Amino acid sequence: MKATWNNAVIAESDDTIVIENNHYFPPESVKQEYLQSSETHTTCPWKGLASYYTLNVGGKENKDAAWYYPEPKDAATEIKGYVAFWKGVKVSE
């Protein structure tokens, strides 16, 4: 699977985990140079507290377009640190 935005490959992996129709990419498959930490957090009742990244590619910013669970609840431990995308990021094979 590949995550692209603004003509750049943000993440690429054959080992994503699909939960609720979102592909979660292993942390080592995500190009960290495109990620900026965000102060945004949301809570999922069964996954726990999510943290966000803003994407910065070619001088363009996509606020909070990626999220991950640094310390997920027991039901979601398999996605600890894995990164998922939305807000116009294309995830495809």
Automatic annotation (TrEMBL):
The UniProt entry, under InterPro entries, shows: DUF427, DUF427_sf
Q: Where is the signal peptide?
A: none
Q: One short Pfam family name for this protein? A: NTP_transf_9
Alphabetized Gene3D superfamilies for the sequence: Domain of unknown function (DUF427)
Q: Which organism is it from?
A: Mucilaginibacter defluvii
* Lineage per the UniProt record: Bacteria, Pseudomonadati, Bacteroidota, Sphingobacteriia, Sphingobacteriales
Protein name in UniProt = DUF427 domain-containing protein
What the entry lists under PANTHER family is as follows: DUF427 DOMAIN PROTEIN (AFU_ORTHOLOGUE AFUA_3G02220)
Domain DUF427 per the UniProt entry, residue ranges: 1-87
